[in-house]
Amino acid sequence: MNPRPLGEVTRGTTNPNRLRRVDNWIVYALGPLIRDAPEPLVVDLGYGATPTTAVELRSRLARVRRDVRVVGVEIDPARVAAASAAADPPWLEFRRGGFELAGLRPVLVRALNVLRQYDESAVAGAWAAVTSRLAPGGVLIDGTCDELGRLGSWLTVTGAGPVRLTLAARLATLPRPASFAERLPKALIHRNVPGEPVHDLLRALDDAWLSAAPYATFGPRARFAAAVAATRAAGWPIAHEPRRWRLGELSLPWPTTGS
Full-prediction pTM beyond 0.90? Predict the structure, then answer.
């Protein structure tokens, strides 16, 4: 008899292309990890009421490596049964499970909009459960985004803990960088208060965005890139990736955003 999956059933809401920003970032930033893995196994943890995001993840990662395998893992058995019609063995399948990953040893786990529905006190335990089951060198991507995937953020987490925060937005609809506060990962959302690093970061980005108003003549991409460059010049260790900035994306180390 299989042990009870670790975790709780979440709301399961999802939309096509909701996770395109994190998927595209995975292809860019973690492509080498998948490409070099002895077994290119990826888990879409908590894919929700429909298998859409798992299907899309497999399609996007296949650009990195044709033989990548994606397994959608859900606690709710009804969701697993409903997703079976979208399976494409051995490249895409669905299993019942939770933070124990249904016994799998993936090189990458994507868990978007999962821990957001838990208490903050549950985050460290969930991270530990997932990362203890990763393949050597594997990572967990834990984050959240809005319903249409226009605004989101995620953490890269290893067995040693979180190592990087990434913010990403559709710049045409981003009012100002302070909006990222609405979609911070669970580990950070309650820390967006004066005196906390993530609050200082968002304030610095917001101030730089306001100062970069003249760049709006050239469009939101130019303005956002200028704001990120200014924030970096002010001392924040944002990765020097100007092309990603113009896509509405930036990454920086966890010690500068968490405790």
Answer: yes
